[in-house]
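Q: For a teaching session next week I want to show students how multiple molecules come together into a single three-dimensional assembly. I've collected the sequence lines for a complex. Could you give me the predicted structure tokens for the whole thing so I can convert them for display?
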Amino acid sequence: MATSTPNDNLGSESPVPEVVIQRLPLYVRVLSQFSSSGNDLISSEQLGAHLQMTPAQIRKDLSYFGRFGKQGRGYDVAMLEGELRSIMGLNRTWNAAVIGMGRLGRAVVAYPGFAPEGFNIIAAFDASAEIVGQTISGLAVQSISQLTDTVKNLDIKIGIVTVPIDHAQKVIDALVKAGIKSILNYAPLSPQVPEGVTIRGIDPVLSLQSMTYYIR
Amino acid sequence: MATSTPNDNLGSESPVPEVVIQRLPLYVRVLSQFSSSGNDLISSEQLGAHLQMTPAQIRKDLSYFGRFGKQGRGYDVAMLEGELRSIMGLNRTWNAAVIGMGRLGRAVVAYPGFAPEGFNIIAAFDASAEIVGQTISGLAVQSISQLTDTVKNLDIKIGIVTVPIDHAQKVIDALVKAGIKSILNYAPLSPQVPEGVTIRGIDPVLSLQSMTYYIR
DNA sequence: CAGTCTTTGTGATACAAAGCACACACGCAC
DNA sequence: GTGCGTGTGTGCTTTGTATCACAAAGACTG
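A: Of course. Below is the structure for the complete assembly, covering every listed component.
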């Protein structure tokens, strides 16, 4: 779905294309699979086969960040995974907050896939007075009015938006105002965010809609 | 996440770039919002403002399919939405099956967002003998061995994969073998699919991982 | 340790997508 | 019906991304 990200030409930092950044987590994933299946060396060819992309593209992508391979042998799986995690900021944990504790929000806080990857949901918010105060999956649901304070106090860096569509933009604005720079949006709208804030949308309907074209 | 799609140079049909196809549902969404807020004319400028993209790109995208606007006025909202829906194959309903009736599969079949957009989940499958036979959200869970038959009998065109990662590739292969050409994959792996099959992944972790780079 | 084989890293090249800018179509006013 | 304002559709240019292809680096072989 729609994504927006810093163009990142601030100063002279990374001129690394956004697409490349989006592929790195894929590499990390394949590498971790690969290493747990006993291999400790991998070639760009093998990596490419797993991801259905060309070896050249993988080498190009990696070359934005350094020289991690050895000619004639390939890449040390564990080492490359570590390097990529470090580049991406994945060798640490990140605190996240979920806003919207309806059906979807409950599913998100209960989802067991975040924590193992270092994403800890440590706060939950809702607008409804009936839900505020409840404990859901071990989280005490707070009022949205406490958002800014809690974000500051708990060092929350990521906001996950699971409110109904008609509240979504307001909530996103509030997150931005609270200083959040990374937002994961489950609401089916095209959100407006200022430059410098990255937002990614999760929207299965949009994915389905873009597939029917090919089977029409 | 990883997507794969027909390169679509079959015969001499549409040389329409994949990215364009992925944007059309966004246009449809904004148009439907816009019309329900009383407007019946929209310019590429306004559309662009909503989606944070340039007017020129929108006009270019639309020009792949025809000339829908009127100079000096813009686009008739309802008409354009209708045209786009027709182009995308969204002016009909599509039958879908969910494979994997664990936590995630249950959430998917219970999700109320699919049906209003014409995606009807009319079959559910699972490998576990305990789950097969249960009725979940009104669907009688079937054994995966019945997949091919049911797909044929019920005219199912879309497969939604919600099985654990270590079964996902097998299930995807089974769907492909059953003739499914559109797959929505919730399992966190990079699936292998033959050409001619479109697969889209829903993976919040991947989205989070590609955001941390910018706030590292 | 020379020769061969493999696989990287990367400049050069080809391809694809986005943006610009303007001619032209349409609507409206007078 | 002439003239003006607005916004489309699109050829051309610019920007961005992927691929090619090859030199150089390491490993292994006898």
